[in-house]
Specification:
By secondary structure, the chain is α/β, with parallel strands linked by helices. It has a single domain, classed as Aldolase class I (TIM Barrel, Alpha-Beta Barrel), CATH 3.20.20.70. Helices cover 41% and strands 17% of the residues. The chain has an eight-stranded parallel beta barrel, surrounded by six helices. Helix 1 runs parallel beside helix 2, helix 1 packs parallel to helix 10 and helix 5 crosses helix 7. The longest helix is centred in the first third of the chain and has 14 residues. The radius of gyration is 16 Å and the shape is globular. The structure holds 2-phosphoglycolic acid (PGA). The site of 2-phosphoglycolic acid has 13 residues, from strand 8. 2-phosphoglycolic acid (PGA) binds next to strand 8.
Length: 238
Amino acid sequence: MKYIVANWKCNPGTVVEAKKILNGYAKSIKKTKKAAAVACPPACYLGLAKEILKGGVALGGQNCHWEAGAFTGEMSAEQLAGAGCKYVIVGHSERRQKFGETNESANKKIKAVLAAGLLPILCVGETREERIAGNITDAVERQVKEGLADVAAPVIIAYEPVWAIGTGQACSAEEAKVVRQFIINITSEKIPLLYGGSANSKNAASYLREAGYDGLLVGGASLDPKEFAGIFDVAKNL
Ligand code: PGA
């Protein structure tokens, strides 16, 4: 079973555009046992997504807070569950770099997501500087171990080298394969591992087949429904 997860980030700007993308998904992505498609739109489009996708594509949140109540601007895992989500992305590098998210906060979020009955997708990955300094596995190990401290499966981990996100410079399948094996070695359970970072329909097979990943976390390419459906087709036809 492969997971093809769409991370729309803070896109698109209008409901009209969101409808267009969702209608495209609904038209070309059909439920299959071989692959699960998951859409993580901005929270304001979750209701619309639930209506249009009707369960053929599962829903996910892009972030959550670990508590509910007096936290203006935040959203709890329970609320995401109520909005129809089955998954929540946690610790995305943009949240780490632009919103001060840490391994500790990611850990709290993961626990809240699991408590709400949802599946967390923990994002890990080295920065360009860490890569140049030869610290890929150190960075990834810390993020995995601290992010998953006192957490029992089920979780999903997405390896997203930060330098490959939104740059068009995807990580080579060989390099991604080495990190995949490293993550398997440091995690005790069978955790599904996704690759993310400039993934598209052309390079999808190299991560899913050659590098052995269980799925992809797709940013930019997921905003084009034809391209996203193309990636899904690669996964389901493997
Ligand atoms: P990208 O983003 O596919 O645009 O590189 C991936 C992500 O940020 O999850």
